[in-house]
Automatic annotation (TrEMBL):
Region (Disordered): 1-41
Record keyword Transcription regulation present: yes
Tagged with keyword Transcription: yes
SMART domains reported in the protein's UniProt record: HTH_ARSR
Residue span, HTH arsR-type domain: 46-159
SUPFAM superfamilies found in the cross-reference section: Winged helix' DNA-binding domain (SSF46785)
Species of origin: Promicromonospora iranensis
Stated name of the protein: DNA-binding transcriptional ArsR family regulator
Alphabetical UniProt keywords: DNA-binding, Transcription, Transcription regulation
Gene3D superfamilies: Winged helix-like DNA-binding domain superfamily/Winged helix DNA-binding domain (1.10.10.10)
Comp. bias (Pro residues): 28-38
Taxonomic placement: Bacteria, Bacillati, Actinomycetota, Actinomycetes, Micrococcales
Pfam family, one: HTH_20
């Protein structure tokens, strides 16, 4: 399973520590304004194969941040023709990953959004090496795009004025906590996070257009810092 890598503490891993393949699949968050619908469904083989294209992953990654968008606007953002983005949107729609925005647009200019409910991707349980590799490649690309936004934010912080910095003081942070835990304890942390998200993040949905509201991104990662053989990542 794809994981974000960081430096290990250098301590020897415990022999019975879990391997990355045993982790819960990474859930892709719902688009803004979507209702909570329970745990996200895991993508099936056909949908996963359809998603295994860098531009489609980019489109699916962009829609919750910039969307809803037309094929033309997506083309401007990603540097592709509207015909290309329109084709890829239709392929994503075939597998329920995106949908047209109801009541918006025309027959010539359709607006698209991420389908509510989110989804998850796991390399565990796949019946072939190719299936596992596809799942890992898709996850790695989503993580790469996420990391690009983090780096862009850090770079932007060097360019803004003092008044802007003061306004957003305390509104962004990057925290890494390195602990030792059993699989059961790690699952308990994840369950606590899910309760926190339901209480504090879900109520923020549907705030597009509210005065002072801007798009935010929240990350929460839980993973062992060893490989399947127990070696530090």
């Amino acid at each position: 399973m794809a994981t974000a890598r960081k430096g290990s503490s250098g301590r020897q891993a415990e022999p019975d520590a879990p391997s990355p393949a045993s982790l819960t699949p990474r859930a892709v968050p719902d688009p803004p304004g979507s209702p909570a619908v329970g745990p996200p469904a895991e993508l099936g083989p056909a949908a996963l194969r359809a998603l295994a294209h860098p531009l489609r992953i980019r489109i699916l990654d962009l829609l919750p941040i910039r969307g809803p968008l037309t094929a033309s606007k997506l083309g401007e953002i990603v540097g592709e023709s509207s015909g290309s983005t329109s084709y890829h949107l239709r392929q994503l729609a075939k597998h329920g990953l995106v949908r047209e925005v109801e009541g918006k647009g025309t027959a010539r200019e359709r607006w698209w959004e991420r389908t509510p409910g989110g989804f998850s991707i796991s390399s565990a349980g796949k019946d072939s090496p190719a299936g596992r590799q596809t799942a890992e490649a898709v996850n790695m690309e989503f993580l790469r795009l996420r990391n690009e936004r983090v780096m862009a934010f850090v770079r932007t912080g060097q360019e803004v004025d003092e008044a802007t910095l003061e306004t957003w003081q305390g509104a962004a942070t990057f925290i890494t906590a390195n602990k030792w835990a059993t699989p059961a304890q790690a699952k308990a942390v994840i369950e606590a996070w899910e309760r926190f998200a339901a209480e504090h993040l879900d109520p923020l949905s549907g705030q597009e257009g509210e005065p002072g509201a801007v798009p935010f991104e929240v990350h929460f990662d839980v993973f062992p810092t060893i490989d399947p053989e127990g070696n530090p990542l």
